[in-house]
Amino acid sequence: DGGITQSPKYLFRKEGQNVTLSCEQNLNHDAMYWYRQDPGQGLRLIYYSQIVNDFQKGDIAEGYSVSREKKESFPLTVTSAQKNPTAFYLCASTYRTSGRDEQYFGPGTRLTVT
Amino acid sequence: GENVEQHPSTLSVQEGDSAVIKCTYSDSASNYFPWYKQELGKGPQLIIDIRSNVGEKKDQRIAVTLNKTAKHFSLHITETQPEDSAVYFCAASKGSNYQLIWGAGTKLIIKP
Fold first, then answer.
1. B99 contacts on A by Cβ (under 8 Å)
2. What is the count of residue pairs from A and B with beta carbons less than 8 Å apart?
3. Confidence of residue A2 (pLDDT cuts 50, 70, 90)
4. I need a labelling partner for B22 at 20 to 30 A (CA). Which of A28, A71, B75, B112 fits?
5. Of A101, A105, A95, A107, which Cα lies nearest the Cα of A45?
6. Selection from B52, B75, B53 nearest residue B64 by Cα
7. What is the pLDDT of residues A75-102, one digit of tens each?
8. What is the DSSP letter of A27?
9. Predicted confidence band of residue B98 (pLDDT cuts 50, 70, 90)
């Protein structure tokens, strides 16, 4: 079955700790994205990557870091510098071909930092 | 930059009635307009999309209309059912090498 997996579904951390969220896709998609969603809010772009070993900041990149060493994987690290990290994190991926640009989303990771 | 506004933020309709959600965009170069449905605790899922060379697209009970001149597009759901209850997001993009710009979402409530 092709798709995007995110793990874990729920994650709890103490303030001051870095935490890494996993995102893996087996759809052979070129581009991958990380979004943050707060309760009752829309999607805000954190980082995106259009090819391996390259990524760009989105609208709210401060306090986050990413890597794209493999086409299938795009992990997100929430660092202690992120002032309000508790949120629902969504990973997405897509082809970069016109007409095939639907974004497919993973099930999300709910991060709670106390 | 591009901005997408979505209205209403909450919509409550009687089961069996129709629901309409509207979005406006600011960048006339946008040419791809998807609609996503997000159920509680899950990731959004594409339900229908439209490109700027088409004015309307239908898929069973769901339709999307696009008015390029006015820069707005709408989602229409007919004969609503309880399983249509969810948050719906519109988005706009200038193409596959550009980011999707998202609306703030509409919570659709279907009353039995």
1. 45, 48, 58
2. 49
3. low
4. B112
5. A105
6. B75
7. 999 999 999 999 999 999 998 776 667 8
8. S
9. confident
Q: Evaluate whether A28 touches A79 at the Cβ level (below 8 Å).
A: no
Cross-chain residue pair A96–B96, CB shorter than 8 Å: yes
Is B60 in a helix, a strand, or coil? coil
Contact check, Cβ <8 Å, B96/A100: yes
User: Under an 8 A CB cutoff, do B100 and A107 touch?
Assistant: no
Q: Which two tokens stand for residue B27?
A: 């960048």
Q: What residue type is assigned to position B64 of the chain? A: V
- Nearest residue of A to residue B98, measured between CA atoms: A96
* CA-based nearest residue in chain A for residue B88: A42
Structure tokens at A21: 């969220």
Q: In whole angstroms, what is the distance from residue A3 CA to residue A93 CA?
A: 9
In a mutational test of the A interface, the residue from B39, B99, B109 whose CB has the highest number of chain A CBs within 10 Å is: B99
CB-closest option in A4, A98, A102 to B95: A98
pLDDT in tens, A24-67: 999 999 999 999 999 878 899 999 999 999 999 999 999 999 99
Give the residue among B111, B101, B108 at the shortest CA–CA distance from B39: B108
Is A47's Cβ below 8 Å from some Cβ in B?
no
Burial class (CB in 10 A: 0-12, 13-18, 19+), B42: middle
**Which residues does chain A have within 8 Å of residue B88's beta carbon, measured at their own beta carbons?**
none
